[in-house]
Amino acid sequence: MRAFLLTVPLLCFKRRGMDNARILVIDPRAEEITPALDLLRRQNYPIHVVADSDAGRKALESDFYQIVLLSLDLPNRSGLDMLAHLRAETSPPEVIAMTAQGSVATAVEAMRMGAYDFLVKPMSPERLLVTVRNASEHARLEGSLAVYQSQSGEGEHGFVGTSPAMQAVYRTIESAAASRATVFITGESGTGKDVSAMAIHQASPRKGNAFVALNCAAIPKDLIESEVFGHVKGAFTGATADRAGAATQADGGTLFLDEICEMSPDLQSKLLRFLQSGTFQRVGGAKAEKVDVRILCATNRDPWAEVEAGRFREDLYYRLHVIPLGLPPLRERGDDVVLIANHLLHQYAAEERRAFKRFAPEVERMFMAYDWPGNVRQLQNIIRNIVVLQDGEEVTPDMVPSPVGGRWARPQGPRNLLKGPDALHVIRPLAVIEREAIENAITACNGNVPKAAALLGVSPSTLYRKREGWLKGEAEAG
Description:
Elements: E1 23-26, H1 34-42, E2 47-50, H2 53-62, E3 67-71, H3 79-87, E4 94-99, H4 104-112, E5 117-120, H5 125-151, H6 164-177, E6 183-186, H7 193-202, E7 211-215, H8 221-229, E8 230-231, E9 243-244, H9 246-249, E10 254-258, H10 265-277, E11 279-281, E12 288-290, E13 294-299, H11 303-308, H12 314-320, E14 323-326, H13 336-352, E15 358-359, H14 361-369, H15 375-389, E16 394-395, H16 430-444, H17 449-456, H18 460-477
Parallel strand pairs: 1-2, 1-3, 3-4, 4-5, 6-13, 6-14, 7-10, 10-13, 15-16
Antiparallel strand pairs: 8-9, 11-12
Helix pairs in contact: 1-5, 5-7, 6-7, 13-15, 16-17, 17-18
């Protein structure tokens, strides 16, 4: 059996845990994209703006950035030269090239040199936000793949986790990897669905070609078709140049559609036609294009329940649900939680230059007793919190933050419940309770939505979607 590091969806965002990607903007005319940058800031992306390549190099020497928005029209150095410098870094950032209308040919050359994507000014704020989110996800998955590759030479013990539930996962991946069949991955948030998809690709004959991932829930519904299939110039407002979609970018490789149950019914129909024929049309285009793509998809919902509820096409379900792969929650994996925790402790201690070597036995028992609603992603955050805020050779119980440590260490169930008529006055709508829990979590995390989502055990896109729904409802009511 191959070795898979599937159990730990490790982030490549150095020293930043689950925080949003840090963005460096290198642009002498950054005022042209001020509305787009303001939208990113409202989504809690830290942004630093400089005007030329010299200032950009100094910024990169003093801090770490996961994404660089690079103007190809720089005053003191060619934008392509700066791109070459960025791609030569030991841990290169994802570069989104920006160009004026008349310089699309230069942007295409930037893509050839390794830029993640390019945007033509002026761009809509929503388009930039989607591109940044996709670039962030790509960087995270590339980091996961790098970890997987570094472990894969260790034989059968190169993965973290030996529970029977995970052994079944490894066998399914081993069998499915060489096939062209679609794999439908299910599991709770934080169980490693994206890393499993990456491992399937890496173990397949397509591993030398592109692995393209799209989160269907993180892309606005009016842009997702363009993201999947691309568009032609003039197809809609803001389409100032032809754009290749994920299907084209993944030609010869693998296209991973995460949170596929969030896909709109119209796009489900087009995806079904694409799966049946292998051909598609770009938004606004009349020409059919054919590509060779293997589809992997994932959801944290019950896909058949979505079919029965009328939210997911039954024929698309049968087309995608060829090889089901269910990932077990961390609470069902026995001693794996301690193995993963130790793996993370040593990794994070090395990154943060801490002395940690082990957990106290009481801490291990605490980890085994906790239910881990956020699964491995929540465990990552807990270990990162310990390593960043504490130091010593042994992790002791007083170092473990809530909800795992302290007075919240072990959920005990409801206490002192009122009964009969006296209980009716304390009952509140579930939607109100949910909103309070989400807003309290975001406030406690200083506005960091991804961190709040991890602690709540849901995906960040779920919180973004709920907050947008609340704002829309309030606007309609007002």
